[in-house]
Amino acid sequence: MTEVKAKVIKSNTVILHTASLFLLPLQLLFSMFLLLRGHDEPGGGFIAGLVAAGAFVLYLFAHGVDSTRKILRVEPHDLIGAGLLFGVISALPAIFFGQALLTAQWWSFYLVGTEVKLSTVLLFDLGVYLVVMGSILTIVMSLNEAEE
Amino acid sequence: MLFAVLSGFIVAALAPWLMGFLKDRIGWGLALLPAGLTLYFASFIPAVSGGEVVLQHWAWMPILDVHLSFMLDGLSLMFALLISFIGTFILIYAGAYLKGHEYLGRFYVIMLSFMASMLGLVLSNNLISLFVFWELTSVTSYLLIGFNHRDLDARKCALQGLFVTVAGGLALMAGLVMLGLVSGSFQISEVLVADGLLESPLITGIIICVLLGTFTKSAQFPFHFWLPNAMAAPTPVSAYLHSATMVKAGIYLMARLNPALGEHMLWTVLLCSAGGITMLLGVYLAYSATGVKKVLAYSTVMALGTLTMLIGIGTDYAMIAFASFLLGHSLYKGALFMIAGALDHETGTKDLTRMGGLRKAMPITATAALIAGLSLAGLPPLFGFIGKELMLEAVLSAEWQSSLLLVAAVLTASLGIAVAAAVAIKPFWGKVGDTPKKPHEAPVGMWLGPVVLAATSLLFGILPFLPEGWVVAAAVTSVKGQSVDFYLSLWHGINLPLILSGASLVAGAVLYALWGRTRAPLTMVNDVFSRVGPEVGYFRFMSAMTGFAAWQTRVLQNGVMGIYMIVLIMTTVVLAGYTLLSQYGLHLTLTGIGEVHFYEWAIALLMVMAAVYVIFTRSRLGAVATIGALGFSVALIFILFSAPDLGITQVLIETLTVILLVLVLFRLPGFSHYSSRFEIWRDGTVAVLFGGLMTLLMLGALDTRYFETISGFFVEASYPEAQGRNIVNVILVDFRALDTLGEIFVLAIAAMGVYSMLRLRAEVKDDRG
C-alpha cells in the first residue's frame, strides 16, 4: 500500500532526484548557520526550523516518504517532543539563581581565540527550531501518507 | 515538613523501579516510608501536646498569597499520624493482597501519591495549597477506584466518585477564596483569628460553598451514594482512602475551620441536620446490606455523619467526642476493611450470608476481627466504647434539637451493634458456610495490619491517658479554638450515656438475631427507595448534561468549515468594528500618501491584482500560486521597510503553505461551482466587511499615538541586557520568551492534531477494508 501512496508524490525527474541529494546537506548547514547567528544577525530558531523543514520536504518530493523517514532516523513527532523539552529545560536554570522563570543565563569562554557564547537562550532557540521543523514534517508526512 | 510531604511523591515516582529490585517484598520495602514518617511526626508529639503550633513556610506565589506553608497543631498531628501509621500497614497489606498483579507498580505510584497529597492536605496552612492537595486526593481516588480499568462498573463508579467530589471541590474553591478575601489572608492560622468574619455579608455564601465541598468529599447526605460505589476499588484502597483517610478530608476541613465559623447558626444547623441524617441513614443501609464491603462502607457513612454532627454540636463534650471517635473509627475501620479483604481473598466471596465458622481456619484474622468489631460496636474495654460514650454525652449537651439528635444517636448505636456483629461475628462463628474457595489463614502481610490496629484499639481503651496525652487533648484544643480540661476514661460511673449504651446493646442483640430474617423485606424496601433517592438525581443530571452537550455540538460544531469561518470573522467584525466606530469614529486621513515610492505602488498593485485573480480563476493550482505571489509581495514590503527577519520568515512560510496546499489539492474532486448564488454573495460580503475593518484599523492605528512605542526600549536594551543585536530574535527568545514557549506548544498541538486526525481516518479505513 505504501508503494502506491509514495508514487502519488514521488517525482521521477532525474534532475530533482540528483539535485536534492546535494541540496539537503547544504540546506541543513544553512539552517544551522541561521540558527547560530540568529541572536545578532537575521535568523533564529524559527527561520532555521523552516529552512530545515523545507530541506526535508524537498527531499521527500524527490525520494518519497519512506526514504525521507530513513535519513531522518527519528519520527518527526519525536522532534516536537524534544524541542518542547529543550524549551522547558531552558526555562529552569534561572530558578537556581533566584531569578524569574526564563531569565537568560550566559556562559562565555574563549576557544582557540574566539569567544564562544553559550546560553539558555540558545537552548531555547534550539527548542523552537526542533518544534518548527518537527511540526511541519509531521504535517507534511501525514498528509503524504494519508490515503487517496 | 515540606520534605515529609514531597517524599511521598518522590518515592511514588521511583516505585516502578523499586518493583524490579524488591519483587514480592515491594510492600514491605515501600512501607518503610510511612513508617519513617510516623516516627517523624511522632517526634513532634512532645512539642504539640505541650500546646505548641509548629509553623513552616516556603513562599510559592507570594503575589497571590499562595504559599507552601505548613502548620502542625493537634488536629493536623492526629491526622498525619493516622495517615502514616495506617498507611504503613496498608502498603504491606496491598503487597500481599495484590501479589503478582500486573499493575502492582502503578498501584503503588498512585497510592503513594495519594498518601503524600493527603499529608499535604492536613498539614497545609494555606487555603489555596490545601485546595490543590484536596483536588489531588480526588484525582488519585478516581484512579484507584477505577484501578481495575477493564471492569466497566469500576470505571463508572470511579467517574461517579470523581464527579461528585470535584463538583463539590469547585464550590469549595469558591468558598475558600471568599473566606480568604473576607479575612484578608489566605493563611489558615490567620483566617482562624480574623475579626468580623461572621458579620461579613458573604458569610452565608462561604458556609454553603465550603460545606458543599466537605459534604461531597465526606459522603454526607444527600451526596453519600458515591462512597459505597467506590468499593469497586481493590480492598487496600477502600481500607485506606474510603474509610481511614480521604473521606475524612471533609471532616478535617470542617474541624479546621470550626473555630472561625462554628459560632454561626447556619453552620450548626447544617452540620447537625446533615450529620444526623447521614448517621442514621448510613447505619440503616449498613444493616440492610449483605456484601461485607458494602456493610463496612455504609457504616463508614454512619461514622462520617456522626463526626459531622459532633462538629455541629460544638460543645466541649462534642469536641472531645469528635477527637476520640475519629481516632477510634480510623483504627477499627481500617482493621475491619483489611479483614474484609482477607475474607474475600481466602473464601472467594464477598457475601456475608454465605460465610460462617471461619474461626478455625483463620484464627488470627478471627481474633483481630473480634476485637475490631467490639470497638465498632462500642463495647468496653475498647477505645470505640470511649468514643461512643462521649458521643452520647455530647448529644445530651447539644444546644440545638438535643432530643431529636439523641433519638438518632441511640438508634444508630443499636443498629451499629447489630452491624458490628454481622461483620465481625457472623463470618467466624456459627455453622461453617459454603464458600467458593476452601478457606485458610491469610498470609502474614494481610493479618499484620488488622492485628496491630485492633491491638492499638485495645491498648488505647485500657490505657486511655496515652492517646489523650499524645494527641487527643491537643486536637480538641485546635478544633475548639481554646484548650479544654478533660480526661478520657472507660468508667465514668453510672450515668445516662451508660444506661443508653446498655439499652442499645440489648436492642442491637435483638436486631442481630433478626439479621437473617430481615434480609428479604429490607431488600424490597431499599428497592423502592432507590428509585427516588439522590443517586437517581445524579443519573438524571448526568444524562441531561450529555444530552445538552450533544445538542450544542450539533448546533455549533456542525462540521462545515465555511460556517466556522463566517462565525469567527463576523464576531471579530462586529465587536472590533463597534468598538472602533464608537470609540474612535470614522477618520479617513491619508497623510503621507505623497511619500510613497513608485515601486511600492507597483507592489501594492501586484497584490491587488493577485487577490482579484484568485477570486475569479477556475484553476486551483493557479489560485495557490497566485496566493503565493501575494505572500511574496508582502515579504518584499517587509524587506523594503528593513525587517529582514520578517521577510525571510514570510518567504519560507509562503513556500511551505504552497507545498501543503499542493499536497491537499491532489485529493480534491474536480473544479466546479459548488456554491449557490446566495452563498457567493454572503461570503463576498463577509470578506469585504473584514477587509474594510482591517483597513480602518490600520489607518486608525497609524493616526493615533496614545503611548510611546515600546520599540525604542527594545532597541536600547537589546544588546546590554540580552547580549543580542537582532532585536526580533531577542524579543522572541528572551524578552517575550514565555509567549514563544506558549506558541511552540500551540504549534506542537496543531501538528499532533493534524497527525491524529489523518491517522485516525487511515485506521478507520484500514478497519473497513
List keywords for this structure.
heterodimer; A: 148 residues; mainly alpha; two-stranded antiparallel ribbon; 2 strands; 8% strand; disordered N terminus; B: mainly alpha; two-stranded antiparallel sheet; 74% helix; elongated
Description:
The complex is a heterodimer of chains A (148) and B (769). Chain A has 148 residues and is mostly helical. Chain A has one domain (14-147). Chain A contains 7 helices and 2 strands; from the N terminus they run ααααααββα. Chain A has a two-stranded antiparallel sheet with strand order 1-2. The longest helix of chain A is centred in the last third of the chain and has 26 residues, at 120-145. The radius of gyration of chain A is 18 Å and the shape is globular. With 769 residues, chain B is an all-alpha fold. Chain B has helices at 2-22, 26-42, 45-49, 74-97, 104-123, 127-145, 152-183, 188-191, 203-217, 226-229, 235-244, 248-261, 265-288, 292-313, 316-347, 363-377, 383-396, 402-424, 444-462, 465-480, 496-513, 515-530, 534-556, 561-583, 598-616, 620-640, 644-665, 677-703, 711-722, 727-735, 737-768, and strands at 54-61, 66-72. Chain B is elongated. In chain B, 45% of the residues are buried. Chains A and B meet through helix 3, helix 5 and helix 7 of A and helix 27, helix 30 and helix 31 of B.
Structural class of chain A: mainly alpha
Q: What is the SS-derived class of chain B?
A: mainly alpha
What is the rounded Rg of chain A?
18 Å
Which word captures the global form of chain B?
elongated
Radius of gyration of chain B: 34 Å
User: How would you spell out the order of helices and strands of chain A?
Assistant: HHHHHHEEH
- Calculate the mean pLDDT score of chain A and round it: 84
Strand content of chain A: 5-15%
Q: What is the count of structural domains of chain A?
A: 1
Strand content of chain B: under 5%
Question: Looking at the structure, what is the overall shape of chain A?
Answer: globular
Low-confidence stretches of chain B: none
| Largest sheet strand order of chain B | 1-2
Distance between the termini of chain A: 11 Å
Query: Level of helix content of chain A?
Result: over 70%
Count the strands of chain B?
2
Sheet with most strands: strand arrangement of chain A: 1-2
